[in-house]
Amino acid sequence: MPTSFNTQAEMTEITIRSGIAKARMPLLKILLLGILAGIFLALGAHASSVAAHGIGNVGLLRLVTGCVFPIGLILIVIVGGELFTGNCLMVEGLAARHYGFGRWLRNLIPVFIGNFIGSLIVVILLVLANAFNYGDGALGAYAIKVALAKTNLPFLVALGSGILCNILVCVGVIGAAAAQDISGKVIIIWLPIMAFVLAGFEHCIANMYYILAGMFATLNPAYASKAQELYGITNDQLASLDLLALGNNLLPVTIGNVIGGVLVGLICYAAFKSRRLNPVK
Fold this sequence. Notes:
The protein is mainly alpha-helical. It has helices at 8-24, 27-52, 58-68, 71-79, 84-87, 91-95, 101-128, 134-151, 155-178, 182-199, 204-218, 221-231, 235-240, 243-272.
C-alpha cells in the first residue's frame, strides 16, 4: 500500500541526489539562487520582527516571531533558492564519495556570498521604503536592540547556539524531502524552524539580515533616539554596531551551523545510506 510520505532511506537518497545536482550547478546559477534565498529569508525575518516588535513578554515575543519567521525557508524550498545552512547537508554526498570536498566548498562559498547580498538588498529596500518606521520608529529601535543582542554574544555561546540551530534547520530540510505534497512540506519545515526561533538559537544567514538592519537603523537619528528611550541603549552601544561586530557574530555562528548540519547529515547517511550513484567529475 503506497504511503503519503517518503521513507528515511528515500529521504537520504533524495538528499544525496540534491547534493549531486548542487555540486554540478554552474557558479553563476549558485550565486543567483543564493541571492534569492537571502532575499526570501530576510523578508521572513523582517515580517517576524514587524509582528513581534511591540510585545513585552519574551516568551510570547519569541512564539510570534517563530510562527512568522519560517515563511523564508518555506519559500526557498518551494519556490527555489540556495541556502548556506541547508547546503551543509551536501556532506551526505561527500561521505558517499559522489563528489570531493572542493565541490562542496565550490557551492557553499558562493551561496554564503549570495545569501549576504540578498540580505543586504532587502535591508536597503526596507530603508528606502521607510519600513522600519512602525510605531513611530519603534521597529527601528527593535532592530537595533536585536542586532546588539546578537553581536554581544560570547564566542562559545554563539557557537553552541549555531550548532543547535542548524540541527533543527536541516531536520526541516530533510523532512521536506519526506513530504509528497506542498502542504506536507510546509508543515514539516514550519515546525522545526519555529522551534529554533522560539528557543533563541542563532542562524548565520538570518543574522546577516538582523545585524545589517540594526546597523542601518543606527544611521537614523529617530530610531537611535527611540532605542535609547525604549531600551536604554547608549551612544557607545550604537557606535559598536559595525562590520567588525557583524563578523564577530557570523564567525562562531557560521562554524556552529556547519557543525550542526554536518552532524545531522552524517548521522542520517550512516543510518539510511543509499546506493551508489555516479560521481561528479
